[in-house]
Amino acid sequence: MENEHSQCNANSLPSSFVEGKQKIEDEGNHGNDDTRLFILSTLAGQHRPRVSCALCKETLDVFDRYPLVDGTFFLSPRQHTSSAVEVKVEGRTQYLTCVCMGCLERCDPERTIRCRFCGQKWDGSSLVLGTMYSYDIFMATPCCAERLKCNTCYKPLLHPHQRLNYSDYSHPVTCPHCRVLDAHFVKPLGYCFTKRAFPLFQQWP
């Protein structure tokens, strides 16, 4: 999965973070120093030496060098968990969120989450550990038509076969039906996923 990164400073990210596109793999697992400083300064400002996984709630230590955490950070326009930290990106509110390595790599069946609508398992094993993604990693690969609907009128925004860049699913778009501007593809985790194999339409967790 590709990652977008660039320069970060304090609790506000400059436009180059959003505009500069580059594979984080180009720098190996060392990541970007400005990204590191952004994460550390954000957490220090909140007096948080540790973070919690958005899925299993496990407490994770944050280190001052890469890899920063035994998992990965990401930014989302939606606050998936109360432990997510509010930041500003290009004047827009985002939430710095963490997922542990065990949940990313589905180390045991109890950590597996699947789409409530089609049953497909979510897989984060390809994500780079210890750094930060500039988009919502849970919403970057919608698996079925239900994930592509407007958050207001529930009409489809894309055809099922249409695909966007990973980060585009986290951007605000205007619904062509009801004209509401929202990050429509970013939905609550409990709406999209379940930890139970059956029934599929029972909410997570």
Automatic annotation (TrEMBL):
<feature type="domain" description="Headcase middle">
    <location>
        <begin position="11"/>
        <end position="189"/>
    </location>
</feature>
<dbReference type="InterPro" id="IPR026066">
    <property type="entry name" value="Headcase"/>
</dbReference>
<dbReference type="InterPro" id="IPR031947">
    <property type="entry name" value="Headcase_mid"/>
</dbReference>
<protein>
    <submittedName>
        <fullName>Headcase protein</fullName>
    </submittedName>
</protein>
<dbReference type="Pfam" id="PF16002">
    <property type="entry name" value="Headcase"/>
</dbReference>
